Amino acid sequence: MLSPASRDIHQLADPRLVPDLSETTDAYLDSLQLLERMHRLMLDLVKDEFERLNRNDLTPVQAMILYNLGESEVSAGELRSRGMYQGSNVSYNLKKLVSMGYVHHERSDLDRRSVRVRLTDTGLVVRELVHRMFLRHAEGLAMSGILEDPPLYQVNLQSRRIERFWGEQIRYIY
C-alpha cells in the first residue's frame, strides 16, 4: 500500500499531469546536493569561528550538539533525532562533552537505561557563541537581500514539506 505522499508522487509521474517532470526532477536532485553542501559549509563556518576564538577543544559537530541541546533537558535519543550529526556518533560525542564539562548527564529515575542530558554553564557559553555567529549571519543575509526572493519562510515551508515526505517514506518501508 502506498503512503499518501507516495501516491501524490506517482500521480505526478504521469507526464500528462506534469509536462516537464524532468525539469522538476533535476531541480529536486540539485536541491539534495545543495542541502548536503550547505550542511558541510555550516560545519566549516562553526570550525572557522572556533578557530578565530582559539577554541580548539570542540569539533563543529560537538558545538552543534551543544547548540541544538540549548536550554532543554532531553534524552540522548531525542537529541539524536532532532540534530544533524552526519557521520558522527552522538553517544561518543555526548560522552566527550560530559567528560569535558559541557554537558551534565543523569540516569532517568523511571527508566535506568535512559540518560537525560542538559548543558552545564560552560556548555551554555559555547551555545551562546554559536548562536551569536548565526545571528551575525542572519543580519548579513538580511542586509544583502538574499533572504527576500523567495522569502525565506516560503523556502522553509517547502523544506518542511520535503522533510515530512521523507519521514513518511521511511515509515512506510516497514
From TrEMBL:
GO MF, one example: DNA-binding transcription factor activity
Source superkingdom: Bacteria
GO biological process terms on file: response to stress
Entry keywords, A to Z: DNA-binding, Transcription, Transcription regulation
Family matches, as InterPro entries: ArsR-like_HTH (IPR011991), HTH_MarR-typ (IPR000835), MarR/SlyA-like (IPR039422), Tscrpt_reg_MarR-type_CS (IPR023187), WH-like_DNA-bd_sf (IPR036388), WH_DNA-bd_sf (IPR036390)
Gene3D superfamilies attached to this UniProt entry: Winged helix-like DNA-binding domain superfamily/Winged helix DNA-binding domain
Pfam families per the UniProt record, alphabetical: HTH_27
Signal peptide: none
Domain HTH marR-type stretches: 28-167
Protein name per UniProt: MarR family transcriptional regulator
Native source species: Paracoccus caeni
